[in-house]
Amino acid sequence: MSAGSMLYFNVNDGFLEGIVRGFKLGILTSADYSNLVQCESLDDLKLHLQTTDYGDFLENEPSPLHTTTIAEKCTGKMVEQFNYLRAHSVQPLSTFLDYITYGYMIDNVVLLITGTLHERDPEELKEKCHPLGKFDAMGSITVEQTTADLYNNVLVDTPLGPYIQGALAVQDLDEKHIEEIRNTLYKAYLEDFDRYCRTLGDATYEVMHQLLGFEADRRSINITLNSFGTELEKEDRAKLYPRLGLLYPTGIRTLAEAEDPDSVQAAVAHIPTFKELFSQVGYDEDKSLEDAFFEHEVKLNKLAFETQFGYGCFYSYFKLKEQEIRNIVWIAECIVQDQKSKINQYINIY
Amino acid sequence: RDRYQRRVRGCNRGAMGSKDRLPIFPTRMGLAALKQKLVAATKGHNLLKKKADALTLRFRAILVKIKERKEQMNPFMKEANFSLASTKFVAGENVSHLIIESVEKASYKLKIGYENVVGVHLPVFETMKENQSSKLDLAGLSKGGQKINKSKELYIKALESLVELASLQTTFITLDEVIKITNRRVNAIEYVVMPRLQNTIQYIVTELDEAEREEFFRLKKVQAKKKKDAVAKEIQRARWLEENPEDYDNEDTGGRDLTKMEDEDVIFD
C-alpha cells in the first residue's frame, strides 16, 4: 500500500466511503430478521421494516401487498443509494461504480434479445429489466430483428461492446444458445473488471481480486454441475470458465473433464475453501450448494469493510444489499405461502 | 248426449273425476294396439330405471374421487409455488421473466378423449407432452439451474393433477345433466304415460262391455217381440180356422213358392 494512495484517498473519495459505511450500518441485523420471521402477514412485515433504514418506502402501496411489490421497492431503494454515490463520485471511483453496473447490463441485454427474438412487446420487456443495468441504447435493441444486426448497430456502442468483440464472432451470436452468450459475456466482464482493479492500487486490488475470483470459481462450478445431461459439450463448457480465481488454471482443466457431480467435488477438493463448502452440503440435508456459496460470499464481502483506502467496500456493500433484498423476499414469500418451517433458510448477514 | 260424441271426448281432464286418457275410438284393434304400447312402456321404464341407477352409482364414485383429488392438489400447488420462490431466491427475481420470454410454444398439450358409460359420452382430458426445443435446458446455467429443474418437475406434477381434476369435474357435470334427464323420463313414463294408457285401456274395455250388453239386450228385446208376434199370429190363425172350418186345407200358408219366399230377418226388422 503506497503512502501516496493513503494520503490522497480521502481527498477524492473519503466522503463517499463514509457514506457507504453509513449505509452499511443500515443493513438488517439478525435481531431485525428474527422480528421479521415472526410476522404473520405482509402488513406486519411492512410495519417492522418501517423501523429500519427502509423507512416508509412501502407507504403508498395499496392494501393487499404482494411480494413482487416489496422486491421492487427494496431494489428501488438500493438503486437510489447507488445513483447517489455515482452522481457524487469522481474518477476513478465513477468508472469503478460503472463496472458494477455492467453485470446487470449483461442480464438486461440477454433478456431483451430473448424477448425480441420471440416477438414480445418491447415496453413490457423494458419494464422487466434490472434498473441498475439501464443503458441508453436499450430502446433500440428491441427494434433489431437478428442478433447480427443487433451487434452491428447497437451493442457495439455500449460498454458491453468490447466484451462482445473480444469474445464472440458475429456469426456466433446467432448460432449460440443465449445462455452461452450470457456466460461468455460475463466471463469477459469478470476478467476485464479484475484487470481494471489492478490499476487502482493494492488496497482495492487485494479485496476485489478475492471477491471476483470467488465469483468466477462459483460460476465455473455451477456451469459444470448444471451442464450434466444437457447438450452443452465439454469444449464449449470449458470456454465459459473465467480465467480467474483459485481454480485457475489447474482446477479449470480438471473441471472441464468432469462427467458427474462426484468428479466435480474431486476436482475442487485441493482448495480447502471449496472442500469445506462441499462437505457442508453433504452434512446438512436442507442446505444446497447454492446456499453454501451465498454464505461464503457474504463472509468475504463483510471482510472487505475491514480495509480502508480502497474501493472494495463499495462493491461489497451492493452485494450485501442484494443478499438482504433476497432475504426479505424469501421471508415475505414464506409468510404468504404459509411455509413457516422453511422461513429460516435466509442468509444472515450481521 | 250421443254415444259417439261421448266416446270421442275421452280426454276431458278439466272435469273432476274424469280420468286422463287418449282420445281414440274404442275398438278391439285399438285395444290390442294399446296393450302392446303398455307392454313397451313398461319395458322402457325398466331399462331407463336401470340406466339411471348405473349413472347414479358412477356419479357417487366420481364425487369421492373428486374430493380426494382436490385434497391432493392443494399440497402439490403449494410445493410448486414454494419451489418457485426458492428458485427466485437463488437465481434472481428476473429468472421467471427470462423463461417466459423464451418460450415459443406450449410443451404440454391437452387431448380430449371420450369415454362411453351406459350410452353417455363423457369427455376425458389427457396431457400430451410435446418435445419442446431444448433451449430451456440451459436456463440458469451459472446459478440456480438445479432449482429451476426441480421447480419444473413440481409444476408438471401440479399441472397433471389439475388436468385430472378438470376431467373429473366435467364428467361430474355432464353426468349430473344426464341423470336429471333420465330421471325425468322415468318419472314421466311412470306417472303420466302408463296411467294414461291404462286408463284408456280401461275405458275401451268398459265401452266394449257396455256395447255388448246393449246388443245383448237388444237381441233379447227382438226375440221377445218376435215371440209376441208369433203368438199373435197363432191366435189369429186359430180364430180364422174357427170361422172357416172348410178352408182347413186352403191355408194361406199352403203351396209355397220357394223362389218368392223371403225369410224373416232375425236381427234387423
> Oligomeric state of the chains?
heterodimer
Shape of chain B: rod-shaped
* Class by alpha and beta content of chain B: mainly alpha
The first-to-last residue Cα distance of chain A is 29 Å
Fraction of residues in helix of chain B: 55-70%
Poorly predicted regions of chain B are: 10-17
* Mean residue pLDDT of chain B: 83
- Average of the residue pLDDT scores of chain A: 85
Distance between the termini of chain B: 25 Å
Q: Order of strands side by side in the largest beta sheet of chain B?
A: 1-2
Number of helices of chain B: 4
Structural class of chain A: mainly alpha
Number of strands of chain A: 0
Total strands of chain B: the figure is: 2
H-E string of chain B: HHHEEH
Most extensive interface, chain pair and sizes: A-B, 46 and 29 residues
Low-confidence stretches of chain A: none
Strand content of chain A: under 5%
Element-level helix/strand string of chain A: HHHHHHHHHHHHHHHHHH
Number of helices of chain A: 18
Kindly summarize this structure in a few lines.
The complex is a heterodimer of chains A (350) and B (269). Chain A is mainly alpha-helical and 350 residues long.
